[in-house]
Amino acid sequence: MIEWILAAGAAFWLGVLTSISPCPLATNIAAISFVGRRVDRPDYVLLTGLLYTAGRALTYIVLGALLVASMLSVPLLSHWLQKYMNRLLGPILVLAGMFLLELLRLPTGGGGLGPWVQKRAQTGGLWAALLLGIVFALSFCPVSATLFFGSLVPLAVKQHSSVVLPLLYGVGTALPVLVFGVLLATGANRLARAFEQVGRFEYWARRVTGGLFIAIGVYFTLAYTIDVL
């Protein structure tokens, strides 16, 4: 039970860390501008934020369910993962930590579907927020891809959770939009201060998490991959 609670907390934290990383944060800021179109109607702002959150969460649930269920549904692969997951987890965590600390980088391309959908959503109705959440969730960049495929999916496989952990991750990725939606409805000065605090928090949170990933990954590598501990 304790292991499951820790896994659930880790999944949610990975989502929050994803949401405040530079690339996903940019899409969330775009979503905030969309959510805040009707700042004169707090109920509309909150409902739009909830639909955006639902879109992101639904996307990660579908992806997580497909990836985790397909891996666990094949007996041979399931047995192999259960036997060797700890051996793989160490190097995966080290690589994830190196990406978070920006010791490794992947090239990123411009354009994509996100800006096109954002423009269309600006003229759409309330349910356009759901579409915006789905598309932005699919707009993976190196950091978000590392956290989802390199950290969340192995954790979900280990816990045999194809829905709950991806759901918690998805909610975490959209959490700033809900928070800033409330701030948009209560005053722009608070929003400006909150953006400044998020920038500072992201800098340290990403580095602390990256360091922990590398430390834990080194331990798992020494203990399970090369069996020296």
Give the class from helix and strand content and strand pairing: mainly alpha
The averaged pLDDT comes out at 74
Give the end-to-end Cα distance, rounded to a whole number of Å.
Answer: 27 Å
Number of helices: 9
Order of helices and strands: HHHHHHHHH
- Which outline best applies? globular
For the biggest sheet, the summary is: none
Fraction of residues in β-strands: under 5%
Q: Helix coverage percent of residues?
A: over 70%
List low-confidence stretches: none
Radius of gyration: 18 Å
Number of strands: 0
Write a compact overview of the structure shown:
By secondary structure, the chain is an all-alpha fold.
Word description of this protein:
- The chain is globular and about 60 Å long.
- The chain has helices at residues 2-19, 22-35, 42-73, 75-100, 113-122, 128-138, 142-158, 164-186, 188-225.
- With 229 residues, the protein is an all-alpha fold.
- Helix 2 (22-35) runs parallel beside helix 5 and helix 4 crosses helix 9 (188-225).
- The model has no long low-confidence stretch (mean pLDDT 74).
